[in-house]
User: Which sequence fits this backbone?
C-alpha cells in the first residue's frame, strides 16, 4: 500500500520536475550560446570596406575575435581586448595579407585596398561577462564597371538622325544591369524613342528638335553604380565612319612601300655600276693600255732668244754635250742589258 502511494506521488510530481529542469537548462545555456546575425556587404576592388558591429547590449565587452570562415575551417585573423587596447594578429596563412590593410576597433573592422581574394564570410565573436555574440558578414568584391557609350552606326536622313549606341562596360558580371535614360527628353517622347531601356544596345531615330538632347547609360551592380552621358548633337554631327577607309589606308601603305623599294633598287643599281667601273679601271690590262697610249713630244724653244741661248750653250760646252746620255738610251744599251 505504501509502495502504491509513493508511485502515485512520483507520477503526480514528475511533470513539475521536468518543467523545472527544462527551465534551468534554458537559463544555463543562455549564458554561453551565441546569437548570430548575418550581414551582406559589397565592395569595389581597390576601395575600402567597413564591418560594423552591434554592441548595444549595454554589457562590458571583454574581447573581440575576428576570423575568416571557409567551407573547411575557420582561420583566425585578429583578437582585440578593448580595456587594454591589446591587438593580437593571429599567425595564420592570411596574416601577411591583412597586416598592412586592416584597422580594428572594439566596434568595427576596416579593410583598405580590397581585392577579389578578400571575398568570403567574416565572423566576429564578442565575449561579454555572461554571453557571447557572433556577427557574420559575407563580403562580395566586384571589379569597377566604368561604363562608356560607343556609337555603333549612324545615318542622316530627311527625318533626322538615326543612331545605334552600345553601353560598353569594362568588367561585367551576371548581376550587372544597364539602364538607358534621359533627363532632357520630354516624358511623352521617351516612349517613342524606346526609353527607358534595359538593353545594352539602344536604337534611336531622332527628329531635328531632339538632336540637342542627351542620353545616359547607367550601369550598376550590388557594389556600385556608374553612368556615362552622350550629347546627341555631338554624335549626329560626327562624320560617319567610311567602311572603305581601312582599305584605302592599305592602298596608300602599299603605294608608299613600292616607291621606297624602287628608290632602294635604283640606289643599289647606281652603286653596282660604280663598283664595276672601278674594277675595270683598276684592272692590269687597262693599265697597260693606258701606258701604250702615252705620247712623247720633242720640246723646242718657241722664241728666237731661247734658240740663241741654246746654241751658245752648245758651242760653249761642246765636249760635255758629246757625253750626255738619256735614260732611254741607257735602258736600250745592249751592254747594260748583258750585265743584268
Assistant:
Amino acid at each position: 500500500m505504501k509502495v502504491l502511494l509513493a508511485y502515485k506521488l512520483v507520477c503526480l510530481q514528475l511533470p513539475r520536475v521536468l518543467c523545472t529542469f527544462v527551465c534551468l537548462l534554458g537559463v544555463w545555456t543562455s549564458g554561453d550560446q551565441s546569437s548570430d546575425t548575418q550581414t551582406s556587404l559589397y565592395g569595389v576592388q581597390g576601395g575600402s570596406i567597413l564591418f560594423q558591429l552591434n554592441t548595444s547590449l549595454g554589457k562590458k565587452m571583454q574581447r573581440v575575435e575576428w576570423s575568416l570562415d571557409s567551407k573547411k575551417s575557420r582561420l583566425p585573423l585578429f583578437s582585440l581586448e578593448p580595456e587594454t587596447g591589446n591587438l593580437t594578429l593571429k599567425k595564420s596563412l592570411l596574416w601577411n595579407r591583412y597586416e598592412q590593410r586592416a584597422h580594428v576597433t572594439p566596434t568595427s573592422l576596416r579593410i583598405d585596398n580590397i581585392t577579389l581574394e578578400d571575398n568570403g564570410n567574416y565572423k566576429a565573436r564578442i565575449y561579454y561577462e555572461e554571453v557571447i555574440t557572433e556577427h557574420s558578414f559575407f563580403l562580395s568584391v566586384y571589379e569597377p564597371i566604368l561604363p562608356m557609350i560607343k556609337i555603333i552606326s549612324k545615318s542622316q536622313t530627311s527625318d533626322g538622325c538615326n543612331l545605334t549606341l552600345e553601353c560598353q562596360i569594362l568588367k561585367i558580371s551576371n548581376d550587372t544591369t544597364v539602364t538607358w535614360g534621359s533627363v532632357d527628353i520630354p516624358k511623352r517622347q521617351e516612349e517613342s524613342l524606346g526609353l527607358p531601356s534595359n538593353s545594352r544596345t539602344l536604337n534611336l531615330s531622332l527628329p531635328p528638335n531632339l538632336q540637342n538632347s542627351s542620353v545616359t547609360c547607367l550601369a550598376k551592380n550590388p557594389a556600385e553604380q556608374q553612368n556615362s552621358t552622350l550629347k546627341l548633337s555631338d554624335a549626329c554631327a560626327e562624320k560617319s565612319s567610311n567602311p572603305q577607309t581601312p582599305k584605302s589606308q592599305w592602298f596608300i601603305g602599299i603605294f608608299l612601300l613600292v616607291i621606297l623599294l624602287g628608290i632602294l633598287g635604283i640606289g643599289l643599281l647606281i652603286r653596282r655600276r660604280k663598283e664595276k667601273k672601278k674594277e675595270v679601271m683598276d684592272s692590269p690590262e687597262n693599265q697597260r693600255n693606258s701606258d701604250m697610249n702615252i705620247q712623247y713630244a720633242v720640246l723646242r724653244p718657241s722664241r728666237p732668244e731661247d734658240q740663241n741661248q741654246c746654241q751658245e750653250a752648245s758651242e760653249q760646252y761642246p765636249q760635255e754635250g758629246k757625253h750626255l746620255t738619256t735614260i732611254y738610251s741607257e735602258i736600250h744599251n745592249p751592254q747594260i742589258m748583258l750585265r743584268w
About this structure: The first strand starts at residue 35 and ends at 44. Residues 1-12, 17-33, 240-245, 336-340 have pLDDT under 50 and may be disordered.
